[in-house]
């Protein structure tokens, strides 16, 4: 199998993982049937007065197999255990909650090395997925066609990632897991992707904003009837740059003490000037 072509191993991996999931689907569906037959699955009524029988439901197969993110997949898999892990670990920790939840899940399953290979990989994929979704998803929100394309791409990526990280869970042993992960390309790609988008988030974001602000303010200031001191312009630039930096790091508490009043007055002067922004502003 290790000497087989990549496309063959990829198809084999996905078919094998689907077959492995099917036995869990069967067991959980039978358990759900028994609970509902005994009345334990009754969960009240919805807004239309229809009875809900999902109190003991442990898997949502359709939502799971059509997931466009690993988080959505996990939310619909082994639901009762996920609810317990969230209450015990995830919601109690201020930092490192995702990794802690995955490690606890591995310990809950047992101590086979394959479990830890699977769940540590899962944490890496979730971390990367959050960052990539934050930056890539808005690019595709143009029309229905691009939204559908994004959904298709993320569905393929999600299912392939789940199948890739789940195989050591079945193999159990460290030797076979390491053979399967002899080229851990998805973990490496996930770490690189997360690091790359973090660089964009923390550095390039406010650098580009500052560059655009400088270009526009220079053009505006040269076309104003009233003189505005360079000191005030620089103060405004400093304020906006600092604000952009804090937005990029998601911590507005890092804002330095800047005279916000002067900055607001300057922007008010710019907006109320006779300068026409349509003719002079740099196109963004």
From TrEMBL:
It is a multi-pass membrane protein. InterPro entries: LPLAT_7/PORCN-like, MBOAT_fam. GO terms for cellular component: membrane. Signal peptide: none annotated. It is found in: Membrane. Its main location: membrane. Pfam families: MBOAT (PF03062). One of its GO terms (biological process) is lipid modification. Coiled coil: none annotated. One of its GO terms (molecular function) is acyltransferase activity. Keywords: Acyltransferase, Membrane, Transferase, Transmembrane, Transmembrane helix. PANTHER family: LYSOPHOSPHOLIPID ACYLTRANSFERASE 6 (PTHR13906:SF4), PORCUPINE (PTHR13906). This is Uncharacterized protein.
